Amino acid sequence: MFSTSGNNFYPQYDLAGRIQHTKLDTGVGLNPSARMERIENPETPNFSQVMSGLVENLNNELNAPDNLLKDVMSGSQNVDIHDVMTAMAKSEISINVATQMTGKVIQAYDKIMQIQV
Asked: What is the distance between the alpha carbons of residues 61 and 54, in angstroms, rounded to a whole number?
């Protein structure tokens, strides 16, 4: 760190390495940037994508017992009647959850609409 040349004593500092970066830097060096990149480049799906994904999953859950029942009736050895009953229970629970969620969303919408600006 120190350089001696003759009788002169000169400290050698790595100034670039000693600079302390703030949290809002642009990611200089090894410090990651703390700027809100998600707003500029959203990596998470938006509300409509989330809702359409939930509806698609619900639709798959509702169609699963019918598909399994068709397989059982066609004589498939890979599917048992217990699998059909389990799929029916899952679809029933999915319908109950979707109904509860719909009710909560409607209640939240009603509360938001009652807010006076």
From this structure: 10
